[in-house]
């Protein structure tokens, strides 16, 4: 059965759709792409990136069909139509862009060469031009160029013209086409299922592992064996995915990227083996250092494991000689400061591209600390830095370390708190002032404040339940409270004194954290002025989910930035679907007010602009936050009425795990 191979331009394909000469068999799913995905496709065409091929079916049969796009012709065409089997989302998107569809208003920034869906902000910004105005049938490039040059005198007119011509040229882009003929409908249905079953994008770690497996047979078995070895030692988070990232970093000297697999494929056997030995040797030195010198006996409490990679490279490649005490302290100081500053919460691979070379420099520890900006600046934790932080904050991890270091014991078994407890002795965090006594008077963010959380066993937690500190503190020795940095003043034990309790405990925790950090600060770091305050001081983001069985659930967002409060109501199901899409490698967006706001995937992080912040987190972190809200949802009848306003100014990056 013959397969015809040919090529057609986008302009030709759009014309054929308009004339009903390209149609969809009924087995095709509905059009599902979001504006963000459409913008990415147009950008790929503009930059000359490959965007795949198209698969068609030509037949004398008359299968049930529908138009490629909702507004495309459905009348019988003048010639035998082609039925589209693979490429529907791309071709429908291009048809919409080229016909000025209201849901495909893609715009182009002539200065930054960025693409996105039209918004209120882009309409006001003279640097943005609608793609349709450049590629549409009535487009006048000279007119568009004249207008843009006049409105943007700071830009070079010739460069604007070159970029507009490059954009206009996408209409001439030719797709490779394969046309199946002679196949019966039953076989076409089977082909369709097989072709479309694997349409999800692979993550960079998946691509890297696939490349390594093909390039270096047996590597998966090495990774799995190494992961099992560290899982048995309490470091189960050093799994195959993490080890793949670490190996790639050791081989390439930077983080993963879209072209990492190409560079990995070109690596020699010697380079791959040397990288693997670096990872193994680095872990053999680093994990005992964390366990014995810092008290990080298990990996599950660590907010980020990427922070380990530069240290793995440093220790894996250093000469086989004793590690002097000051260097050991410097390594742990980097680990602690990079962790509490969320160094790898956003541009993970870009920052690894800075830190791995630093780890290979002549003075690696100094170079790493210089990347953090702490050379000459002691890191001081203040009470303000802890305000509004909760279980998702890296300061929660630090609070565990300082409490453990203070020889705190469980309030039931009287054993030292440990992340390795099992069964009834498994470590939990407990609300010192129980939620039940605070709900009517305080916000969720205040109730879940880090300063209201203590590390105790499941057994002790069950014993305390919803009793007030005014009750159960009487059963505890004051030293047991002090070991957890809990203020012992009796006047702080009632719900009415809760805010004063938070302030008092923050002070104790901040002082303990600063002392703890100072112990690991190398003596050769010069003492100077205290570093600037964290730019998230005084900032918070609070989520509240209002759920219903008969209407769509809503996610209420309250963002506070110093003295400013910004609110929005999101469609909770849309947010969850968007997060699931990006987790599978698909672009997506969320409706905020009257605008579609894209969820951007930057390396391994999902970014969503929300008023004064850009919320950042891995897909797993986003899913964890949404699941948390689902567990604490309220009736939709209690949902407030909110009018979203446009935020003016630059947003700050805010880790999604820090939300309440």
How would you describe what is shown here?
Helices cover 43% and strands 16% of the residues. About 2% of the residues have low confidence. The radius of gyration is 29 Å and the shape is globular. The chain starts with a strand and ends in a 5-residue tail after the last strand. It folds into 4 domains: 199 residues, no CATH class; 169 residues, no CATH class; 137 residues, no CATH class; 120 residues, no CATH class. The chain contains 27 helices and 20 strands. Strand 6 and strand 7 form a beta hairpin. Helix 9 packs across helix 11 and helix 13 packs across helix 14. The chain is α+β, with helices and mostly antiparallel strands and 660 residues long. The strands form 5 sheets. Strands 1-9-3-5-2-4 form a 6-stranded mixed β-sheet. Strands 15-16-17-18-20 form a 5-stranded mixed β-sheet, sandwiched between helices. This is GmrSD restriction endonucleases N-terminal domain-containing protein. It holds the Pfam family GmrSD_N.
Distance between the termini: 60 Å
**Structural class determined from secondary elements:** alpha+beta
- Count, helices: 27
Unreliable residue stretches: 197-202, 527-533
Main sheet summary:
6 strands, mixed
What's the helical proportion of residues?
Answer: 40-55%
- Molecular shape: globular
Instruction: Report the strand count.
Output: 20
Strand order of the largest sheet: 1-9-3-5-2-4
Strand content: 15-25%
**Overall mean pLDDT:** 84
- Compute the CA-based radius of gyration: 29 Å
Number of domains: 4
Organism: Carbonactinospora thermoautotrophica
Protein name: GmrSD restriction endonucleases N-terminal domain-containing protein
Domain GmrSD restriction endonucleases N-terminal: 11-212
InterPro entries: GmrSD_N
